[in-house]
């Protein structure tokens, strides 16, 4: 799929008040804002036009905008994040989406789905059941995707150490999937060629294919080398401050 647009939201001044289990200490806000700018520049270099929502101090995790929606050429689905502090992030995203999509479907309570648990693989969607995405939400999403002529499978990652499905895997096209060793080897993955991420680089398993490039977190040379050897055009992106808040590359944008 050729992406042309992305929706982003920069970190707010109280970004450090967001949720995290990383134990890596508080993020440096100025640096986080600079890293976010650099991330947007990379998306622009990939050919995407960026729409930026204003930073929202009511929601310190709001820059992780991927968790709030799923975008497809023929429809959008507003999600319902599993962390109560994040549910309010969706309203402003929905408002922005309404100007771009005729209809925006929605996940309803008590269903919860975080976008980080949804991985599109050539029109098929893997939906992770996690501590954030519950069974009701996953089933609602599968139905809504079906209405949009998309198939899906539910993959249970509860019991793993992964926050989200895409903390543990990324789809890079041509049936190739980057997977960390934390990702349970479920039957749903058996049809893909798996590129294992070295254990010490597990954070980098969340990488993103954007048109002809693969964005990989900077500082993970083994995965970058593996991908370059496979002729991927690897672009390193500094993520140090987002990592402190459990955020990966994919979660900083909604791409279309
Ligand atoms: C959270 O715990 O919800 C945020 N601090 C991090 C969310 C990262 N989202 C993602 O990987 N899709």
Number of helices: 6
Helix content: 10-25%
The fraction of residues assigned to DSSP E strands is 15-25%
Order of helices and strands: EHEEEHEEEHEHEEEEEHEHE
Number of structurally distinct domains: 1
Bound molecules: citrulline
CATH class: Alpha Beta
Radius of gyration: 17 Å
Total beta-strand segments? 15
Which strand order does the major sheet show? 2-1-15
The CATH topology is given as L-arginine/glycine Amidinotransferase, Chain A
Mean of residue pLDDT values:
97
User: CATH H-level name... which superfamily?
Assistant: L-arginine/glycine Amidinotransferase, Chain A
C-alpha termini separation: 9 Å
Shape: globular
Uncertain runs:
none
Structural class: alpha/beta
CATH architecture descriptor: 5-stranded Propeller
Major sheet summary line: 3 strands, mixed
Task: Characterise the protein shown here.
Helix content is 22%, strand content 23%. The chain is of the alpha/beta class and 256 residues long. It has one domain (5-18, 28-255): L-arginine/glycine Amidinotransferase, Chain A, CATH 3.75.10. A three-stranded mixed sheet has the order 2-1-15, covered by helices on one side. Strands 3-4-5 form a three-stranded mixed sheet, sandwiched between helices. A three-stranded mixed sheet has the order 6-7-8, with helices on one face. The N and C termini lie close together (9 Å). The structure holds citrulline.
